[in-house]
Amino acid sequence: MAAKRKRVAAFGEVMMRLQAPGYELLTQANTLQYSFSGTGVNVASALSRFGHEASLVTRLPDNPLGDAAEAFLRKLGILTPHIVRGGAYLGMYFLENGFGARPSRVTYSNRQMSSFNTAPNGTYEAERIAPQIDLIHFCGISLAMNDSVRAQMKALARAVKAKGGTVVFDCNYRPAHWGEGGYALAKPHYEEMLELADIAMMNERDAMLILGMPAKQEGREEQLVELLPQVAKHYGINVLAGTHRAVNGDNTHTLRGFHYKNDAFTFAEPRTFSVYDRIGAGDAYASGIVHGELTGFTPEETVNFAVASAMLAHTISGDTPMSSERDVRRAMTEAAGDVER
């Protein structure tokens, strides 16, 4: 099915990623490779490659670093009419790739002082942006930053909702960002975003830990089936989706996607694959779900497309998904083979 081109946007911070080579630690590395990323960048890039008109709502410093970041976004196919310039800094993070029993490690630098996180209220002109887009994506990482960013998110979500647009919210809870007592601090803000969301990315752990919902069941899938229908009904959410991941002893990962819509769950068959770069794969999954919903896929096609999109993202260096719809469809049905010629 050919994609029905939609005007989509993502709200989020652009960060500079500084990566140690291979599987080296920062204490070993003599060089670092830089690129620009962030959840909003990843989602907008993926949806652009799936055929949509994708833009980013963010704030970049008005200096050569901001120029480099904006040029990088354009190279990814991301439109930039909603990018504002101001502030002095770009948030950075340092990545050490994990291997075997050692997990990957991300170390943030200068994040709260970034142009995005110091943007004053009213920076993004929500009433101007809202009529220009059909769907907007937000994530819990931005929600964790500070009160000003939270207010901007909610104002933009309300404006898009008022104009009949679709609001997507990815829970993306990060304990380190919320700090001590994080679940209690996060809950009211998550509830506000879920009340505005038409599509939400979450699992049973989000329901239990962030929203404080009790579960009678013990297994993860049983808890999922118990709790997510309650979330959908309570907050008026049309679609809930997410993944369950297992990290295997041979450095492969197994991913199973799920999709809840119209009072019914659809589960993808588990996919096991080798991992080259895990960062950003969750954004690839979310983008696959959004694309399926925008394009009118069946629930089964949507969740399998999203899992294949996430699987391919694990094979590509860097945070940002780079696969086209054709690439994803091929991955849905074919195993990796010889060189394509």
Brief overview:
The protein is of the alpha/beta class and 341 residues long.
Question: What tags apply to this protein structure?
Answer:
341 residues, alpha/beta, 10-stranded mixed β-sheet, 4-stranded mixed β-sheet, globular, disordered C terminus
Q: Please, could you describe this protein's structure?
A:
The protein is α/β, with parallel strands linked by helices and 341 residues long. The protein is 37% helix and 22% strand. It has twelve helices and 14 strands. It has helices at 39-49, 64-75, 126-129, 140-143, 147-162, 175-178, 182-196, 204-209, 220-235, 281-295, 299-313, 325-333, and strands at 7-11, 15-19, 33-37, 53-60, 83-85, 92-96, 105-109, 135-139, 166-170, 199-201, 239-247, 252-261, 264-267, 271-274. Strands 1, 4, 5, 8, 9, 10, 11, 12, 13 and 14 form a ten-stranded mixed β-sheet that branches. It has a four-stranded mixed β-sheet with strand order 3-2-6-7. A hairpin with a 2-residue loop joins strand 12 (252-261) and strand 13 (264-267). The longest helix has 16 residues, at 147-162. Mean pLDDT is 93; it is low at 336-341.
Task: Describe how the helices and strands are arranged.
Layout: E1 7-11, E2 15-19, E3 33-37, H1 39-49, E4 53-60, H2 64-75, E5 83-85, E6 92-96, E7 105-109, H3 126-129, E8 135-139, H4 140-143, H5 147-162, E9 166-170, H6 175-178, H7 182-196, E10 199-201, H8 204-209, H9 220-235, E11 239-247, E12 252-261, E13 264-267, E14 271-274, H10 281-295, H11 299-313, H12 325-333
Parallel strand pairs: 1-4, 1-8, 2-6, 4-5, 8-9, 9-10, 10-11
Antiparallel strand pairs: 2-3, 6-7, 11-12, 12-13, 12-14
